[in-house]
From TrEMBL:
A motif ('HIGH' region) lies at residues 15-25. ATP binds at K246. This is Glutamate--tRNA ligase. Monomer. Belongs to the class-I aminoacyl-tRNA synthetase family. Glutamate--tRNA ligase type 1 subfamily. It catalyses: tRNA(Glu) + L-glutamate + ATP = L-glutamyl-tRNA(Glu) + AMP + diphosphate. PROSITE patterns: AA_TRNA_LIGASE_I. InterPro entries: aa-tRNA-synth_I_cd-bd (IPR045462), aa-tRNA-synth_I_codon-bd_sub2 (IPR020751), aa-tRNA-synth_I_CS (IPR001412), aa_tRNA-synth_I_cd-bd_sf (IPR008925), Glu-tRNA-ligase_bac/mito (IPR004527), Glu/Gln-tRNA-synth (IPR000924), Glu/Gln-tRNA-synth_Ib_cat-dom (IPR020058), GluQ/Sye (IPR049940). Transmembrane segments: none annotated. One of its GO terms (biological process) is glutamyl-tRNA aminoacylation. It comes from Vannielia litorea. Residues 8-310 form the Glutamyl/glutaminyl-tRNA synthetase class Ib catalytic domain.
């Protein structure tokens, strides 16, 4: 359904700091971020930390780290929902004053008794407070909650950009609590007040909040506030079609950084989870901003597919600017608490990027293939590489060394020199490649022998062959 956009678009992400930042939250943040940036609007961050028992500073820091790694920059300072509790209470009392809310003195025991009786009699357990229309003169001097005076007749229709028009019978919606008896606001009230005060024009969130929208819009109406545009996006499922959880693999954003996926690849992949632009799988941030629309979001749930993520990650690594990729590598090493690269290693890595990027799907794979420039002599071969350096192979490497001392140091000349040497041994170059790989890197999975020789240069090549031959 077509939706016109207001003069300034304002979106938000509002995670709860009760654990790691879930990949689903990251995808929701990404959609909000792209939409705001596409329209030159604002993208805001609100930390919904009113649950003081479960909210932790560590979880809040995890949200900040996840957002920063993904490159989802927000406008202004992050807002703490807890710090706005007085404002939430103020709105509840305004609703009490304008008649759209009322005091309810029912106790928890009374509500429980009502529901048990209703269940036994086969009636709806939706609680209908007897205090809704009670004469204020009958109010006791006991604690009370403030409840919304929700409409009992008719229907509430949510005009959703993704889901279409969704209708709720008002008879199925309760007079929800806005302010508890201890003066603290409920989540439902706080979200609406914060979204209104922050000027949020588009609420883009998971479709598990769709039922909340029906109740929350009553608060907007009661206060005479303008409703935001709603876009409830489908959840992310695992490959088996069930809600994404630990049994499917990593679910926290930071886990993916530690697995070695570069941030641009994660943005690309998350954008494709539930949104599409034709058959385009691989695209840049600029293309995502140009193409993205709320109308392009699918109603059906998306399935997380590691093979597709790996494929996209490899494409981004191959296409990325060398210095940008270096930044991703350094951030990855920091995330896994690995030793930083020194200047010599960075220089070698940059020289080798051209032959490392095409075959790597993750940063650990790239770094594994970069062992020949990240390590230093003497290279100790791993178990597989050691098998390629038997006494016969060591002798052959010793014989090869003089042929390389005077060879021109370019690919064509090196290919000719090594090819001629192999032929002189009644052999093929393929049989020579294994020992050369082992000598030059101590590994069997490497870039081509010629690329390694060109990157490290003549002197280092000869020195490593000498090390291996002795």
């Amino acid at each position: 359904m077509e939706q016109s956009t207001p003069p300034e678009v304002v979106t938000r992400i509002a995670p709860s700091p009760t654990g790691y930042m879930h990949i689903g939250t990251a995808r929701t943040a990404l959609f909000n971020w792209i939409f705001a940036r596409k329209h030159g609007g604002k993208f805001l961050l609100r930390i919904e930390d009113t649950d003081r028992a479960r909210s932790t500073p560590e979880a809040t820091d995890a949200i900040f780290r996840g957002m920063r790694w993904l490159g989802l920059d927000w406008d202004g300072n992050a807002v703490s929902q807890f710090e706005r509790v007085p404002r939430h209470a103020e709105v509840a009392r305004q609703m009490l004053a304008n008649g759209s809310a009322y005091k309810c003195f029912a106790t928890q025991d009374e509500i429980a008794e009502f529901r048990e009786a209703a269940k036994a009699e086969g009636r709806s357990t939706l609680y209908l407070s007897p205090w809704r229309d009670a004469d204020p003169s009958t109010h006791p001097d006991t604690p009370y909650v403030i409840r919304l005076r929700a409409p009992r007749e008719g229907e509430t229709v949510i005009h959703d950009v993704v889901q279409g028009d969704v209708t709720f019978k008002n008879s199925t919606l309760d007079d929800m609590i806005l302010l508890r008896s201890d003066g603290t606001p409920t989540y439902m009230l706080a979200v609406v007040v914060d979204d209104h005060d922050m000027g949020v024009t588009h609420v883009i969130r998971g479709d598990d909040h769709l039922n909340n929208a029906a109740r929350q819009c009553h608060i907007y109406h009661a206060m005479g506030w303008t409703l935001p545009v709603y876009a409830h996006i489908p959840l992310i499922l695992g490959g088996d079609g069930k809600k994404l959880s630990k049994r499917h693999g990593a679910t926290g954003v930071e886990e993916y950084q530690k697995m070695g996926y570069p941030a641009p690849a994660m943005r690309n992949y998350l954008a494709r989870l539930g949104w599409s632009h034709g058959d385009n799988e691989f695209f840049s941030d600029a293309q995502a901003r140009e193409w993205f629309s709320l109308e392009g979001i699918n109603k059906a749930a998306a399935r997380f597919d590691y093979k597709k993520l790996d494929n996209l990650s490899g494409q981004h690594i191959a296409a990325m600017d060398d210095m940008q990729l270096m930044g991703e590598i350094e951030a990855y090493l920091t995330a896994i608490d690995a030793q930083e690269l020194d200047e010599e290693q960075k220089d070698g890595l940059l020289r080798a990027m051209y032959c490392l990027k095409p075959a790597a799907r993750t940063l650990p794979q790239l770094l594994e293939k970069a062992a020949f420039v990240l390590g230093s002599r003497p290279f100790i071969p791993d178990e597989k590489a050691a098998q390629a350096l038997d006494p016969v192979s060591r002798g052959i490497l010793s014989e090869l060394t003089p042929h390389l001392q005077n060879a021109s140091w370019n690919r064509e000349a090196l290919e000719a020199t090594l090819g001629a040497f192999a032929e002189s041994k009644n052999s093929k170059f393929g049989q020579l490649a294994g020992p050369l790989r082992a000598a030059l890197s101590g590994r069997t999975a490497t870039p081509s022998v010629f690329d390694m020789m060109l990157v490290i240069g003549r002197a280092e090549t000869l020195a490593r062959l000498q090390d291996a031959a002795t």
